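Example record

Each entry pairs one chain with its bound ligand, delta-amino valeric acid.
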Amino acid sequence: MSVARAREGENTRSPVCSYNEWDPLEEVIVGVLDGAAVPTWHISLKATMPEDQWRLFQSRGGAPFDPELIARGNRELDELAHILTAEGVNVRRPARIDHATPFATPNWRSEGGLYAAMPRDLLLVVGDEIIEAPMAWRCRYFEISAYRELIKGYFRDGARWTSAPKPELKDELYDPHYVESDDEDAPRFVINEFEPTFDAADFIRCGRDIFVQQSQVTNMSGIRWLERHLGSDYRIHVLPFRDAAPMHIDATLMPLAPGKLLVNPERVPKIPPLFSRWDVLGSPCSTIPDSHPMFMSSRWVNMNVLMIDERRVVVERQEEPLIRALKDFGFTCIPCDFRHVMSFGGAFHCVTCDVRRRGTLESYF
Ligand code: DAV
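C-alpha cells for the complex follow.
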C-alpha cells in the first residue's frame, strides 16, 4: 500500500501533519537546554551573532554553557510544556544529550555542537512530511541526533521523513573576508551557492504559500531545493527585508491567523504585496532591559510567539506592550516567563516544532 501525499481538503492519519502556523495544535516538540554548548567560533557566526558575544564564542567555543543559565532556561521551557499540556496539546521533548563533544568530518572539525533548544531551526514540517534542514553552521552538523528517536517513531507511525542533501560545509561555502553590509536593504552574505543550505526557521508556512528569506544560513540553492522537492502543491515566495544580518524569518514576519500578520516594524518597512488584504500589526519593541544577556539574537525575539490556534497565542509574560497590542488585535494571550530562554536566541516559535495541527491544505491568498 502506498502512502499518498496529502491533498487539499484531506488531513492524513500520519502523526505528522501541519500546513500553517495557526491551525489547532495537537502535538508539538518543545526544545531542551540540557547539555547546551557555546557555539564554536567560525566566520559564519560573525554574520549574525551580537558583536559583544564574539569573544565568548572565540574563547569558550565547545565548552558547556553556564549550568545556572541552563537551569533557569530549562525551568521556563518546562513551564511552556506544562502550559501547552494544560491547553490540550501533546508535548514531546528531544533527547537530553551532551552537546559539548568535539567532532570532525574529513574537511573540518568543531569543538562542540550547540543545543536541542530550537527545533524550529532544524525541522520543517510541511503536510505529512518532516524535513531535516541542511544547516550552514558547522557546530550544528549533528544537532539532529537529539531528535532522531522522536522522528523514527513518527516514521514508524506513518510520517514521511526526509533529510535534505547533507552539505559538506567546506571552506568554499564561506566568504573568509565577510564584513556586514552597511546598506540594510542589500545584505552581503557570508555563504555562497557552493551547495544548498537552509535553516528551517527561515521558512514560514501559510498553507499552499510558504514564505522564505535568503539569509546568512539559507542560500538560493537551498530555497530552490525545497521548492523543487515540494513540487507544484506549494508556492515558495522569497521576500526581501531590511536586515543586514538575516537569520530566521520568525522575528521578522509572523502570520498569526488567516488575515492577521505580525511584523517587525524595523525590518518590514513595506508590507509584501501578497499580504495587502491582511490586517498588519507592527510589533512593539521588547521590554527586555539592556543588562539582560542576549548571547545569540536581537531583542526582537519578543515577537517570536506561538499560536495554539487562531485565537490563543503564547507570549512572554513581561512583554506588556506586545500583550496589549495582541489583545487589541483580537487574540487571547497566554503569558509564560521566557527571558532566560530568550538569552539563548529564541522564544516560543523557535523552541517548538508543530508536528501536528488539525487542519487541511488551503490557500489563504
Ligand atoms: O532577531 O536576532 C531571531 C530568530 C532566532 N531563531 C533575531 C533573529
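The mean pLDDT is 96.
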